[in-house]
Fold these 4 entries.
Entry 1:
Amino acid sequence: MHFYELHEGDDDVFADLLLAREDEMAPEEFFDIVQSIRRRVLETFNQDTLVQAIADELERDYEFISITDERLTAAVNVSRDEEENFLADLDDPEEESDYATILADIKAEEDHRN
């Protein structure tokens, strides 16, 4: 099994998506295919992110498998503290979210009271 990554965004806001494929594909060929798909779907994709749209095309046309939360068989929380180790409930609707994470770098205003 060979693994590939799609990364979208900049240093502050981004999305990563891992893909797997049984047959190895040269990095340059993978890049060329991704670029071709990106140009084709850029204006019309319906997914939350561009990388999801590209991954869908890679699955359909190039035998890739997107490694997403929906495909997980098990998830384990691991911690140094014994009581924080547990098998996550993948079917728990409260664990699901309908939002994306956003990182904000907020600078406090200077105190001008002096």
Entry 2:
Amino acid sequence: MAFHSAKALKERGYEVWLATPKINQKLLYEIGKELINVAVCPALPYVSEIEMHWIKAFDKVVVNVYPMVATAAIISKVRPIIWWIHEPSEKYDNFYSTLRCWYHKYASLKDFSSAYIVAVSNIAKRNFEKYYPGRINSILTFGIPDEADNLPIAVNNGKLVFAIIGSVKELKGQQIFVEAALRILDEHYSAEFVIIGNYSKDEYSKELQDSILNISEIKLTGNLTRTELKATFNGIDVVVCASLEETMSLTIAEGMMHGKICITTDATGIADYISNGKNGFVCQVGSVESLYKTMKWVLDHRDELAVIKENARKTYEKHFTLDVLADRFEKAFEAIEEN
């Protein structure tokens, strides 16, 4: 998200630096191709005011994610900042409880009195305001580059391919996806199901693999590169997010960008942008029955899918392009200048 934001602002004519505690060579290469400056500062999450003297060279600063809490507090004293919150609830991650113990002196709102704090979604806002009530100034949704191929939107009359994308773990709900898929296959529908994402040797991954053993219509691909994933999107008809919670869903936004049918749960931030049956579908979180019924509807109403795909693409263009993201940042910049 930081990379995409830097790219969006650079395209608006800003000089942008991306400061990070560490970076791998592959990502550094991708950022370098966009001619975006990178500063590697290993002490960044734990800096003191003395170590942040170089930040005064910048006019505005965007601090990304809650684990940068100490940095956000320090920089806000010397420069206008936007602090961008993305974190899941305590139920699925321990960011808030752990970091509030580590950085107990930043548990008070007074340390961020001059910060303009935004959340990537209403779910992220709710999670943050559990600890800092009423402190989110606005919602600032992410944006992604437009990588869609200029292909006509058409309904595939062969097998419909459903895909769930993301690292295999309980939070992502792959087992819910598999159980719904098995019910679809039991009814002899012409469909295939693909699970894309890294998996490990943990119990959840093992059980998932065992549940699809010898079922040719359900495939587990493992991790794919960005290039491989983009190529794979051409063969996907329906993108599914079965997450138990997700402050935003990058995969659903990418699905909309590519003009795919998109199904997400009501525990994702992106569900706020979906009107059921119009530009995608929202099913009940944690419910195999709800996901099964939604996928079954898609299979039973193929003649209605073209319009939904077209509306999904329009939703991307309205809410998730880099140009729209730059507009949101500039509006936030105006707010911090007024502040």
Entry 3:
Amino acid sequence: MKNHRKALILSMALMLLITAFSGCQSQQPETSEKTEPTTAAILPASTGDEPVKGISNLGISPEELGIAPNILHDSHEVGFQLEPPQPGDTIAVVHTGKGDFTLRFFPEQAPKAVTNFINMAKDGRYNNTSFHRVINDFIVQGGYVGNEEGSVNGTNYYGGAFEDEFCDKLFNIRGAVSMASSRRDENGSQFFINQTSAKAFADKGGWSPYESAWANVKSQLLSYKDSNLLSAYIDENGDKFINTDVIPEDVRAFYEKQGGNPNLDGAYNAADRGNTVFAQVIDGMDVVDEIAATETDDKNIPAEIILIKNIDITTYSGTETTTAETTAE
């Protein structure tokens, strides 16, 4: 048992190569008069087996561990999330202390997350909340609403945590907007914008750190599969279980070109963990970069308070300036 514990400690140290997400609190926002709710169209999701093969092939039953991913296998091509919205689509213009940026939504792929964000914005619940966690060349995080005890991820439109929505054609590339949650299926109000550039992705080693981490995970799973430490190991490290064995070449190339954080994707996580992608920045990524460049303390809290002043939910006319270019120099 002592050797198992020692191995677990060594494993956890190695896994720090990939940053894990956790909820973070912010200040209480102002609220406005409640508007009529907007509901995104919901498509049926299909249970995907690709991500769990990395566990089942090792003789470990995902079902016995409560791992049952429900992944939408979308018909779009890899890269569609960089396409501009269609005229008539709902978009969001986020007004911040550093300037504005615009979001395109994915209501068919992440209906609950999109519905949550749109209605929270319409109700003014994101008004005067801050970007409370900023890590340059990684993420810009904000949107914490409420200070209720036990609401580590913030209070959302539904009044309670809602489940993850993973799609095999939406990725945490640069400019992707995702739900920030500390545990599986515990989405609240918080969201983050992926800010890692293609250069930063390459400078960090590209896919090599993720491949090394997955190889180490498989080794540890084999060590623990007949031990009572198995569940504890997966619970502690599951957010780092990106299964590089099953990631297609076009997905790999997409990240190499755009940058981003593939360890946050749920569709290729072998432990059913990840962050739901529900929108993409289509204009104003320079504003996101300026926020990301803000000086922070050792807890990644900006020294300067940067607020979301308010968010306009509007309709895309087709004449707005948008860009699919997300790569920073």
Entry 4:
Amino acid sequence: MSFKPEEMYCDGCNKEGRLFSWCSECPIKSCCQEKGFQNCAYCEDYFCDNLKMTFDKDPSAKERLDEIRKNL
């Protein structure tokens, strides 16, 4: 992956809208689309191996998803 967390500007894994260059290859996006979830916070397998790399690179991503899960 040759991008930084601040370069990620998509509108969500299962939404139409803004996507960034890596979305078509993203295993997280593919998983959310297959399961029909808006994002990983809705998944019963939260958090999985797919998210570990993301959280290692961008800990604020975990904070955001944890906050969403708290409000479900």
